[in-house]
Design brief:
alpha/beta; 242 residues; Rossmann fold
Length: 242
């Protein structure tokens, strides 16, 4: 795991002026470094001084051959340049007031050490779906979550590839709920998804950067939907390049 800290200096200021802050930035990483070491996660920390933070992120992705970028949802959705030019997959997390904790305080990797939390997975069979399932697998293997699957479709009676495996999912202990979306994006679609997600009483929601083919990042109905969630959502954005 590579953790990047970008120090941004004004365009008229030499980049060398930002070097003085590099050591302070490295020291601020120490608490996270201790946590990752305790969990035996290989990691290293990068400090980059730049006039343009987006350029610094893109350059680091290329130089370090990054496969997956983990970032803040609001930061990512407002950075059009990054969304357009990024060449790796993205996991964008929307968590306020430290709602998404790295350490749950006792559950660890032992499912018997505490009660599992509900992880709701929103699956629509679209372009982001494979990455959504991969992220679900990563999180489920921590032993901290019970998986609840919300299957979306736009045609009555239509089942996507996951919903068609309902018997198999039941054997795995995965709770499945199906939701029919309207053919056009509206607050009604967002309300239907919110109601279905809420019925699971989720502690975490995993979904693609689009729902039913509609972008989550810039659609007002789905942005309003996010405001009503009582838990942090994790968004998966696939790479734009092959």
């Amino acid at each position: 795991m590579s953790i990047l800290r970008v120090i941004t200096v004004p365009a008229q200021t030499p980049l060398s002026a930002g070097e003085a802050f590099a050591e302070v930035a490295k020291r601020s990483f120490e608490p996270l470094e201790k946590l990752l070491d305790r969990e035996s996660v290989p990691n290293h920390y990068l400090v980059r001084v730049s006039h343009d933070p987006t350029e610094a992120i893109l350059a680091t992705i290329e130089e370090q051959k990054i496969y997956l970028l983990v970032t803040d949802f609001e930061t990512f959705r407002h950075d059009r340049k990054l969304m357009t030019l990024i060449t790796c997959k993205v996991l964008a997390i929307r968590a306020g007031n430290d709602a998404l904790e790295l350490d749950s305080g006792g559950v660890g990797n032992d499912p018997s050490a505490g009660e599992k939390e509900n992880m709701v997975v929103v699956y629509d069979g679209g372009e982001h779906s494979d990455m959504v399932l991969k992220a679900t697998s990563w999180l489920e293997h921590s032993g901290k979550f019970r998986v609840c699957l919300l299957s979306l479709s736009k045609v009555m009676g239509e089942k996507n590839s996951v919903a068609m495996q309902q018997d198999y999912l039941n054997q795995l202990g995965v709770e499945l709920k199906e939701v029919l979306l309207t053919s056009e994006l509206s607050s009604k679609s967002a309300d239907a998804v919110l109601s279905a997600v809420g019925s699971f009483q989720p502690d975490l929601v995993v979904m693609g950067a689009s729902v039913g083919g509609f972008s989550v990042f810039n659609n007002p109905d789905f942005l309003a939907f996010l405001e009503q969630l009582n838990c942090p959502p994790v968004f998966i954005e696939p790479t734009h390049c092959s």
